[in-house]
Amino acid sequence: MHDGSGRILVQGLNKSFGPINAVQNLNFSVEPGSVTGFLGPNGSGKTTTLRMILGLISPTAGGAFINGQPFSRLPNPATVVGAVLDSQGFHPGQTARTHLRCYTAALNLPDQQADQVLELVGLSSAATRKTGGFSLGMRQRLALATALIGNPQILILDEPANGLDPEGIAWLRGFLKSFASTGRTALVSSHLLREMEHTVDNVVIVSRGQCVYNGDLDQLRAAQQSRVLVRTADPATLVEALRQSGLTAEYLPDGSLAVPGTDSKTVADLALGAGVAVHGMQEENLDLEQIFFQLTTGQYSGGAPQGPPQPPQGAAQWGPGGPQQPPQPGAPPPGTPPSPGVGQGYQQVYPQQDQNNQGGNGGYGGNA
Ligand SMILES: Nc1ncnc2c1ncn2[C@@H]1O[C@H](COP(=O)(O)OP(=O)(O)O)[C@@H](O)[C@H]1O
Ligand SMILES: [Mg+2]
């Protein structure tokens, strides 16, 4: 028997395909009542992880559990988990309704259930149309309807926003939020944070098969780092003045300085105190997309293979499944991303000892 919790637990999950380590020591849980985004660039191991959660492939090590059980041990799995890994496999000559009725028959469900899920995904008006003429967005909706046929407690969707237009994405957002608001569990993958930004409550971000962030999206958003870019006649003197006030600075390729974690007034006052002329100053804020890019960047940079991203010191919830540490006094809050410019050729000037740590149903309104 399963525990009925609606919880997905991934523990020490690994998968290798020959020399390719597709998934490496993944640990996370997905809680009921929320939408969790499983985010990472193409090839970062999302589909492989979802396939392991669904028992379609075996892990090389570790395990995945749904309601406390491996998928293969769930009784009536269609009533526990609905999943879409691929929205292409429909018989082109079948109508949406007959496609779904194959499932109601196989699962011993009443025929009307097919029309109910078509309505849920806003496809009622296309019930008698052949799927061969469906747009990508309509296929996504029909695949979702198929996953919902057993009225499951947990929904697992692989890249459901692919091919959806903005109206389709907005509809998906409303659908997932209302699904989770009834206490059910949604795990949704995407290679685009922007697509999922307003849909998910929590995120698990993977890069090269490893977890680089696992937590609240609001916390990640709150940690958006700002920095001051300053051009001065005497950068070395300003860097020393900044250092004496506990601030770090990076030399940018154009000779100006980037000072993270402060504001322009502080930098201007320090420059004045040090007698340094300032030629220009600008405050820069990183948005969520830039943080996501920074966390996962380098995966397909076209250059030589690089190591996995380094977690910043003292930050909880970061790094490849590493232990969760309490924040250190004076350390950035949990979820603070690596400093801007890391890995982009900027030179970290101070502090020297840190140099190794850079590290509702809108209905179907067209061929959406
Ligand atoms: N069946 C397979 N055989 C060999 N390599 C695979 C197989 N499935 C996935 N991979 C590799 O594993 C890595 C992760 O792939 P995948 O899980 O599909 O990533 P994502 O879904 O994040 O785009 C990629 O390098 C991919 O080429
Ligand atoms: Mg994939």
UniProtKB/TrEMBL annotation:
SMART domains: AAA (SM00382)
Region of interest (Disordered), ranges: 299-368
Bias (Pro residues): 323-340
Ranges of Low complexity composition bias in the record: 345-358
InterPro entries, per the entry: AAA+_ATPase, ABC_transporter-like_ATP-bd, ABC_transporter-like_CS, P-loop_NTPase
Residues making up the signal peptide according to the UniProt record: none
SUPFAM superfamilies from the UniProt entry: P-loop containing nucleoside triphosphate hydrolases (SSF52540)
Compositionally biased tracts (Gly residues): 359-368
Keyword Transcription regulation applies: no
Keywords associated with the record: ATP-binding, Nucleotide-binding, Transport
Domain ABC transporter span(s) in chain numbering: 8-233
A Pfam family per the record: ABC_tran
GO molecular function terms attached to this record: ATP binding; ATP hydrolysis activity
Family recorded in the similarity comment: Belongs to the ABC transporter superfamily.
Protein name according to UniProt: ABC-2 type transport system ATP-binding protein
